[in-house]
Amino acid sequence: MVINRNLLVFAFGFTLVASVVHASIDNERKPYIVYMGEARGAGISTSDEHHNLLLATTGDESIAKSSKIYSYGKSFNGFAARLLPHEVKRLSDEDGVVSVFANTRNRLHTTRSWDFLGMPQTAKRRLDIESNIVVGVLDTGIYVDAPSFNDDGYGPVPAKWKGKCVKGANFTGCNKKVIGARYYNLENIDVENQSPADLDGHGTHTSSTAAGTAVKDASLYGLAQGTARGGVPSARIAMYKVCWGSGCSDMDLLAAFDDAISDGVDIISVSIGGDSRSFFQDPIAIGSFHAMKKGILTSCSAGNGGPYPGTVENVAPWIMTIAATSIDRQFTTAFKLGNGMKSTGISINTFSPKKETYPLIDGARASNSSGDYYGNISACDYGTLSSDKVKGKLVYCLGSSGQDYTIKELNGAGVITSLDAPTDIAYTTIIPGTTVQLKDGYKIDEYINSTKNPRAVIYKTRATTMRAPFVASFSSRGPQLISLNILKPDIAAPGLGILAAYSKLASVTGYPSDSRYSPFNIISGTSMSCPHAAAAAAYVKTFHPDWSPAAIKSALMTTATPMKIKEVDAEFGSGSGQINPSEAVHPGLVYDINMSSYIRFLCKEGYNSTTISLLIGGKKKYKCSNLKPAQGIDGLNYPSMHAQLKSAGSKISAVFYRTLTNVGYGNNSVYKATVTSPKDVSIKVVPNSLKFNRTHQKQSFEVFVEGGSMQNGTQILSALLEWSDSKHIVRSPIIIYKPSE
């Protein structure tokens, strides 16, 4: 998801999330997805299978034909169709069907960041392998003509590539950098530009963050100037446009996953999410599961529901879920009052003042004298102000909710807004603007009341340094709501104030009345952190092409940099810490997870044998009762350890079973365990020393966590397990959570 106040329609206006797309009238057909598990073998027509199912369900040949929207069959099996309620129930009862769920709309989650992560342009690379890596991006489309996608010096398209480049309005084709581009609009909604072209800018930004080529002197009107580049600048990009002005529908997301897996992508980046759902009623969980089966890791944004607990999205354990953190740069905008008072606020203001000072007024004094309005005049709500009183003036408003657009419409010269709590998000304003703390707001108010001719000036934004990293306020927090003993988010990456490529088909703010168009833009959101992590995974994969998605994810998690600035929500905000791609190349040990482990985990989570057999495919039938039960409180060989107590008064008691695989190059390595924990908790690691004699050797251990009931006021206990052989440190956070009473 992108955090950009000026794209509120896209970032927060999706009122249809987790709601049925069409009216809920019992006799009206609504779009549903019928998910049927693993793809059928070669030579089997899934389209015929789907038609026959619909025919048996509806009892009418013409209805069966007209109701089907789309068949999935390249990478998994299923179809989208318009169904009546009784047909949904009948299909749900079919033996070959895993789930039937209503099509919903999901929301987008929207320089220097790679240097801050310890990955300078001079970082060691395997360019011969990196140039064959294809990063698949599911997003709003792409602007191929952006400088970040220049293909000078690129060799032929990788021979493995099976994808397509679909041309259309404002999109004349691909190149050797952007090698694939598709778009999806299965509901056939009325949209502008039926093509992979990016009319929003979000998809261009995320794509270039992951794999954009290096562009010198990149900036947004001089702000954040430097070399903009992706984490794997030699890699190729394939865009799958699934988001339009009304959101990103389930059926389009599944179609994109179906194609991307079949096309031959190596990593998938998805800066999209919605309300938590069970794994196999969630298109991103379904798509990423089948990607994982083919050796493809999916990186997903954690969501922008922070700082509130329990808001994290994209929580399936085979997904790498990414929180957003800061880098050591912030954007501050100074202002000066006519009495000489100077202070700074936070914003992205690209405008330099044309006058020494401007007349200053507040909302109350600029009110519409007719009184025919609803809203708060002090907050400068839409319709409350008079154009005659605002014209040519700077306006001071309480709160910060997009007043810059309102003031521009009234021909104002600029806006100063105030917040009663600190903020870390710098929004781009359509006119000169800054957001200040309320204490400065009081001084502005006092000044306006003290003189007959108040004046002020807002200066152009400057980039300044700050202490970092910390978890961005908007980044969604755990605990998750689906698998209660799996810690999410997994890891954190830069997502605050990120400069990257942008589409020249969209203005800087997204407003049609904004005349600024730039090849680069500064945006915040977990949408921005997600492609950072996807690129880091791709970077690790270039050194270890044979590693599983779980091994790559483990390497990134266990080598992550612990947060310098810890919030009260601890690892529920940052997971294992901030990514450190260079260290992840040589993690020493990894927590790997194979398919049989996932099967046992799903059994533990309550999925039945029939469902699991459909998920895995093939002739072999699985019975949970015949499998070795998943061990421990979480039932999975996960790089982090997390336990939720059953009730507020429960005593702490959890066991974690783990297996580490040696991926170091030396033999006869001895790793010793060190635990850092609160005094109220006893943590024992058995054994506390592991010896590895060869590469790929596995060694198992158990972690016993015991303690009394957690004291009133304490909900989170945070500990850390570190395995070290003096060359490597393999870190795993241990988190105990007490639910509210």
Automatic annotation (TrEMBL):
<feature type="active site" description="Charge relay system">
    <location>
        <position position="202"/>
    </location>
</feature>
<dbReference type="InterPro" id="IPR045051">
    <property type="entry name" value="SBT"/>
</dbReference>
<dbReference type="Pfam" id="PF00082">
    <property type="entry name" value="Peptidase_S8"/>
</dbReference>
<dbReference type="InterPro" id="IPR000209">
    <property type="entry name" value="Peptidase_S8/S53_dom"/>
</dbReference>
<keyword id="KW-0645">Protease</keyword>
<keyword id="KW-0378">Hydrolase</keyword>
<feature type="domain" description="Inhibitor I9">
    <location>
        <begin position="32"/>
        <end position="109"/>
    </location>
</feature>
<comment type="similarity">
    <text>Belongs to the peptidase S8 family.</text>
</comment>
<feature type="active site" description="Charge relay system">
    <location>
        <position position="139"/>
    </location>
</feature>
<protein>
    <submittedName>
        <fullName>PROPROTEIN CONVERTASE SUBTILISIN/KEXIN</fullName>
    </submittedName>
</protein>
<dbReference type="InterPro" id="IPR041469">
    <property type="entry name" value="Subtilisin-like_FN3"/>
</dbReference>
<keyword id="KW-0325">Glycoprotein</keyword>
<feature type="domain" description="Peptidase S8/S53">
    <location>
        <begin position="131"/>
        <end position="575"/>
    </location>
</feature>
<dbReference type="InterPro" id="IPR015500">
    <property type="entry name" value="Peptidase_S8_subtilisin-rel"/>
</dbReference>
<dbReference type="InterPro" id="IPR023828">
    <property type="entry name" value="Peptidase_S8_Ser-AS"/>
</dbReference>
<feature type="domain" description="Subtilisin-like protease fibronectin type-III">
    <location>
        <begin position="636"/>
        <end position="736"/>
    </location>
</feature>
<dbReference type="GO" id="GO:0009609">
    <property type="term" value="P:response to symbiotic bacterium"/>
</dbReference>
<feature type="signal peptide">
    <location>
        <begin position="1"/>
        <end position="23"/>
    </location>
</feature>
<dbReference type="InterPro" id="IPR036852">
    <property type="entry name" value="Peptidase_S8/S53_dom_sf"/>
</dbReference>
<keyword id="KW-0964">Secreted</keyword>
<dbReference type="Pfam" id="PF05922">
    <property type="entry name" value="Inhibitor_I9"/>
</dbReference>
<dbReference type="GO" id="GO:0005576">
    <property type="term" value="C:extracellular region"/>
</dbReference>
<dbReference type="InterPro" id="IPR034197">
    <property type="entry name" value="Peptidases_S8_3"/>
</dbReference>
<dbReference type="InterPro" id="IPR010259">
    <property type="entry name" value="S8pro/Inhibitor_I9"/>
</dbReference>
<dbReference type="GO" id="GO:0004252">
    <property type="term" value="F:serine-type endopeptidase activity"/>
</dbReference>
<feature type="active site" description="Charge relay system">
    <location>
        <position position="527"/>
    </location>
</feature>
<keyword id="KW-0732">Signal</keyword>
<dbReference type="InterPro" id="IPR037045">
    <property type="entry name" value="S8pro/Inhibitor_I9_sf"/>
</dbReference>
<dbReference type="Pfam" id="PF17766">
    <property type="entry name" value="fn3_6"/>
</dbReference>
<dbReference type="GO" id="GO:0006508">
    <property type="term" value="P:proteolysis"/>
</dbReference>
<keyword id="KW-0720">Serine protease</keyword>
<dbReference type="InterPro" id="IPR023827">
    <property type="entry name" value="Peptidase_S8_Asp-AS"/>
</dbReference>
